[in-house]
Specification:
Structural class: alpha+beta
Radius of gyration: 22 Å
Largest sheet: 11 strands, mixed
Strand content: 25-35%
Number of strands: 13
Distance between the termini: 53 Å
Shape: globular
Helix content: 25-40%
Number of helices: 9
Order of helices and strands: HEEHHEEEEEHEEHHHEEHHEE
């Protein structure tokens, strides 16, 4: 793959379908998106790895949904990493990129030398879909389980959506010759077509009785699903994130006997939706007395975006429902 081809595949999601086994999927490559997310904060290595995994899952899942506005993945735990939140914003127009942002909150003195997933404690993994004004947001939750955020996402789809789903991901610091070290991520998502997923009854075979993909398919569907997963397991790390194999080529390498069909790629970019107007709107419910309690010794109200780090410095006289005018 030439340098131009590599750049063209960076920060994209490629949808596909395997006609012979009733499975759909996505291939994602993230490069600049991760750099944009992680350079906003000085995260420890364990936290960076968790954010990279969540961002990649978000890109893969977001492209599967007929989305008009926002998908959010969120982890809340009692561990050292208390929260991870990622947002995927649908393209505003045909041909435009989707946007992804992410951040994490953590207790640095509680981080250990264990693997990144061990920094999470008891908690939950949630997916929220907001289609915008005039709609009711949807939220599904599953307990933190398994040995990775990937296994949590797979458990969510089995438990909450009863859709057999599998991810194979790779992410880390790239050390390509002649380039500065930077984060890269790549992965594949497989999902059995919804019409083929029976309604599972009773407890599942997963941790704590959670449903797993194998609990949702049987007979010919089970054989097809198992075959697709065996083929997915043959994908190598360098094929997922390396510069030499294009996603379309990877699909044919893995699934050529399953008649893969590929569709138009979806570009993704790092992007934040914060703005001064949004900050003002969030403060519009407060009285002048409330705003006074938020005012600094310098006579200003300040706010920082947790996603992109942008700093807002506002005149308190222009804030709240008793505001008297515009900021200078």
């Amino acid at each position: 793959m030439t340098l131009a081809q590599k750049i063209a595949w960076d920060d994209t999601v490629l949808p596909f379908q395997l006609d012979n086994c009733d499975v759909r999927g996505r291939v994602a490559r993230l490069d600049g998106v991760l750099e944009g997310i992680l350079q906003q904060h000085n995260y420890p290595a364990q936290v960076e790895a968790l954010i990279a995994e969540m961002a990649l899952l978000t890109a893969l899942i977001g492209q599967t949904i007929s989305l008009r506005w926002k998908l959010q993945l969120q982890v809340q735990t009692k561990g050292a990493v208390r929260m991870i939140a990622t947002d995927y914003y649908a393209p505003t127009e045909e041909g435009e990129p989707a946007r992804i942002r992410a951040y994490a909150s953590f207790d640095g003195d509680r981080l250990t030398d264990e693997v990144p997933f061990a920094q999470l404690g008891e908690g939950y993994f949630a997916i929220m879909i907001d289609q915008g004004e005039g709609t009711t947001p949807y939220q599904g939750i599953t307990p933190i389980a398994g040995d990775s955020l990937t296994s949590c996402a797979e458990a969510y789809f089995a438990q909450s959506e009863q859709l057999p789903t599998r991810f194979k991901l790779s992410f880390g610091q790239s050390t390509e010759a002649g380039a500065a070290e930077h984060w890269r991520a790549g992965g594949i998502m497989l999902q059995h077509m919804p019409k083929a997923s029976p309604h599972a009854k009773g407890g599942g075979s997963g941790e704590g009785g959670l449903l797993q993909a194998a609990d949702l398919v049987e007979g010919e569907d089970g054989e097809n699903w198992g075959r697709a997963n065996v083929l997915l397991d043959t994908a190598e790390e360098l094929e997922l994130i390396g510069p030499s194999v294009a996603p379309s080529e990877l699909l044919y390498r893995l699934f050529h006997e399953e008649q893969p069909r590929i569709f138009d790629t979806q570009p993704v970019r790092f992007g934040c939706t914060c703005s001064e107007d949004r900050v003002r709107q969030s403060l519009s419910i407060y009285s002048a007395r409330d705003i006074a309690h938020m005012t600094t010794e310098e006579g200003r109200v300040t706010a920082d975006c947790q996603f992109c780090g942008r700093h807002y410095d506002l005149d308190p006289a222009t804030l709240g429902f008793e505001a008297g005018g515009n900021d200078d």
